[in-house]
Specification:
11 strands; Alpha-Beta Plaits; alpha+beta; single chain; two-stranded antiparallel sheet
Length: 274
């Protein structure tokens, strides 16, 4: 969009800018919807004097977005991804036959609309629960971005145990503003190709697609995982057959199962379309 000319900029009050540095230079105009959208895109390009200044500007920008009824989903996702990139990368990830656990938050866009800048507080709390549960079950965090989380386990049984424990904790948690926060969990076992810090390949895509078809509060697993757990399933854990499903991008239908255990919801709508 066109830059403000000097006369237009001078006529705006200080509150019309998200960031004013210590020399008085005013950056990121937020006085109308077009400039707020532009500021959301340009925020990451600004060199702030320190972290408190950056945080003040971020809050002013998000408040302006709320004022003009702009839902900054991409901006918040980008901020979360930047925070994740600043964390040390995972090391010593297992290779060979592994079990991948993925999660995402149901209706995350609706939660962003309701919480605005406070969505980051919510996602940080969700990630904290997921990270602790994964480590407690012997798993490894691979990646966390936007509302998604990816972990890997050497044992299918450990991944299923982790998923049950995570859903029980997430379901029983009281969330900000008493919102209903529901997380989908998908699990698949296979032989993904490992890189230094992540995994790639069809098995990763399969895990992602399985997660996407589930519902909040549900744990959906592939036949590979179910077979891997079958001989060592803990008492009270069952696998409810959901039939074979054609998942987007995969050549063949995949047999899916719902994990059933004491305390977990048991009734869900049919699986979502992939």
């Amino acid at each position: 969009m066109p830059r403000l000319d000097p006369k237009e900029r001078a006529s705006l009050p200080d509150r019309a800018f998200a960031y004013i540095d210590s020399t008085g230079r005013r950056r990121l105009p937020i006085h109308d919807p077009a400039h707020v959208r532009n500021a959301l895109v340009r925020f990451g390009q600004v060199a702030f004097e320190d972290e408190p200044a950056r945080e003040r500007a971020r809050m002013r920008l998000l408040n302006a977005a709320k004022k003009f009824k702009i839902v900054p989903v991409g901006f918040i996702a980008g901020q979360l991804q930047t925070a994740r990139a600043q964390r040390p990368g995972p090391i010593n990830l297992p290779s060979g036959f592994v079990t991948m656990l993925m999660t995402d938050i149901e209706d995350s866009t609706g939660l962003v609309q309701q919480l605005g800048a406070r969505y980051r507080q919510l996602i940080d709390e969700v990630w904290s629960i997921l990270r602790r549960g994964v480590v407690d079950s012997g798993g490894h965090e691979v990646e966390a971005r936007a509302d998604e989380f990816f972990a890997v386990f050497e044992s299918p049984r450990s991944a299923v145990d982790a998923a049950i424990a995570l859903q029980l904790e997430l379901i029983g948690r009281s969330w900000i503003d008493d919102l209903a926060v529901r997380v989908r969990i998908g699990i698949h076992s296979g032989y993904p190709t490992s890189t230094d810090t992540n995994y790639v390949g069809m098995d990763v895509n399969t895990a992602s697609r399985i997660t996407a078809v589930g519902h909040g509060g549900q744990v959906v697993v592939s036949a590979n995982t179910r077979e891997g757990v079958k001989a060592s399933a803990p008492d009270g854990v069952r696998f409810k057959a959901l039939g074979e499903h054609k998942l987007r991008g995969l050549p063949d239908p995949v047999a899916l199962f719902q994990v059933a255990a004491k305390g977990l919801p048991s009734r869900f709508p049919p699986l979502r379309k992939s």
